[in-house]
Amino acid sequence: MCKHILNAQVAIRAPCCKLWYDCAECHAAAQTHPLAKAAEMVFLCKKCKKAFRKDMSVYEESDEYCPHCDNHYVLDAKTPQAVVKLEGEDLRVDARMVKDDRVKEVSRPAMFLESDDDFADRLG
């Protein structure tokens, strides 16, 4: 799983060290040498798990699909975004960490009652 590109559809075989990586940043994090450039790239489809080669010098729009399963592997990359959120248990189970800002309504007895007799008794 690539932590740099969330929707990576293929793994790429690095031409320099012959190892599989999901992106160039994964290669840079694991290796000390720079990623070598090559005209022919070897891909591994994550959907059908089959490898295929593409000549990058004559790359066309039809080459954006896996030749084995027609998986569209050239997508706009979704990168992880920093999010601030509450870490803890499921709020439906234990909500002690969340402050409830709602105010409990206090019931007060009515000052004036509907009945005139009761009102007269209160006044004296």
Automatic annotation (TrEMBL):
GO BP terms: protein import into mitochondrial intermembrane space
- The residues covered by the CHY-type domain are 1-71
Q: Which UniProt keywords apply?
A: Metal-binding, Zinc, Zinc-finger
Q: Name one GO cellular component term.
A: mitochondrial intermembrane space
GO molecular function term, any single one: zinc ion binding
Q: Identify the InterPro entries for this entry.
A: Mito_Tim_assembly_helper, Znf_CHY, Znf_CHY_sf
Q: Name one Pfam family in it.
A: zf-CHY
Which chain regions cross the lipid bilayer? Answer: none
What is this protein identified as?
CHY-type domain-containing protein
Q: Which organism is it from?
A: Mycena belliarum
